[in-house]
Amino acid sequence: MNRIGHQAAAQAAWLGFCTGERLLLHDSALSWQHVLTGMVVASSMCADDWSPDSDQGGVMAKIIPGGHRGPTHMPELVAAVLFGLTHVVGDDLDWFVLAAAAAWGSHLFVDFFWGGIPFLIPTLFGHKKRIGTKLDTGGPAEHWMTLVLVTLAIPLGYVAFGGDIPASWIVS
Description:
By secondary structure, the protein is mainly alpha-helical. It has one domain. 57% of the residues lie in helices and 2% in strands. It has a two-stranded antiparallel sheet with strand order 1-2. The protein is globular and about 50 Å long.
């Protein structure tokens, strides 16, 4: 998936989390400042240098073994790193880890459909098998998925930033 698609997925994932938190926790939900800053974190960590695609080029590609879609695309390794990070950062920065998880998790989720992701730990030992589908990057499916994700992010953002939920949204 291209950069715009990854960013749409990251925003939908982050705003979905924030909306869920607002609906469940009400008064103790993230502030609008945290929601907005989390959007910046999710956007910056879903593509390019701070994303799973950091293994594609530059300095990081020389450090990270396995080439593109190697260890940085392994869901279990990413989950372990993010879990470890929750123990390093304090409670004041837990929103940052959640925004990073939204960025990296959504990146791996859409990569599952656009080329596949590594198949578990054997990837560390040179095994190149991937699981997922091989939809065309830049193809019609990607354009439609990006449109759906952007459309989904709009009402999620409205609620995440503190907007009231219209009664017509509530399913009885």
